[in-house]
Amino acid sequence: MKKKILMIMILAMGCLLMACSGGKQQVVEQAQPEQESESGEVASGETEEEVDSVDLVEATSQDQSDTKEDPLSTYPSEKIEYARVWLQVIGNGDIEELNVRQISAGEQLNPYDDTSVAYPEDVIVLSGKAMADGTVTYSGNGDGTINVYDVPSHWPSSEQIEESMEEYTQGIVDDTEKVSVDAGDEQEVVELIGKISG
User: Distance between CA 69 and CA 157 in Å, rounded?
Assistant: First the structure.
């Protein structure tokens, strides 16, 4: 009789232990779906970050495509100006090189004659490699127009002109021509920029 009671108690304890351990498993199993849902939220957050990074890549590629659309965006503005002025005034882009020289206000138009008048403003002189390519002497107005000085490629001697050199050079200063500079063909401008020396 005592043995039966002892056996029943042992079986009852075993059942209780199994019931208790089974309950803990259920608690763990219930907790895991919550962790999964939390990790699911993290995963959805990561997905949002990935979408943002894709948007950033798309925006960057759009910026690059915009840059490709404007081939002049990589060049300095002064070189673009030189090329456009040359093409506008001379019109010949088929030259070997384009030389640029800065002349300060106060320097004489004709450096070979002391009676020559001086430039009233800073000017830029553009010239080709060969004398036959021509020259452009101008000042910029900052509004898409330039003042072109009709400076000769070869200065005449005093005997070759009817007036004095002072009057001759003063006439060049007084008769500057205001010219509007067009944007021109971008490809021609780029090619000419590549020929600018220095």
Answer: 51
Q: Cα(48)–Cα(51) distance, rounded to whole angstroms?
A: 5
Residues 141, 32: Cα–Cα separation, whole Å:
76
What is the three-class DSSP state of 177? Answer: strand
Q: What stretches of the chain show up as alpha helix (H) in DSSP?
A: 2-69, 77-89, 165-174, 186-193
101-113 pLDDT, tens digit per residue, is: 999 999 999 999 9
Residue 50 CA to chain centroid, in angstroms?
A: 29
Compute how many other C-beta atoms are within 10 angstroms of the C-beta atom of residue 190. Answer: 15
Q: Is 74 helix (H, G, I), strand (E, B) or coil?
A: coil
pTM of the model: 0.64
Q: What's the Cα-to-Cα distance from 130 to each of 5, 154, 161, 196, rounded to whole Å?
A: 124, 13, 25, 14
pLDDT tens for residues 150-166? 999 899 988 899 999 99
- Please count the residues of the chain: 198
- Selection from 158, 153, 123, 125 nearest residue 141 by Cα: 123
Q: How far apart are CA 97 and CA 15, in angstroms?
A: 101
Nearest one of 134, 151, 131 to 88, comparing CA atoms: 134
Q: How far is 36 from 31, CA to CA, in rounded Å?
A: 9
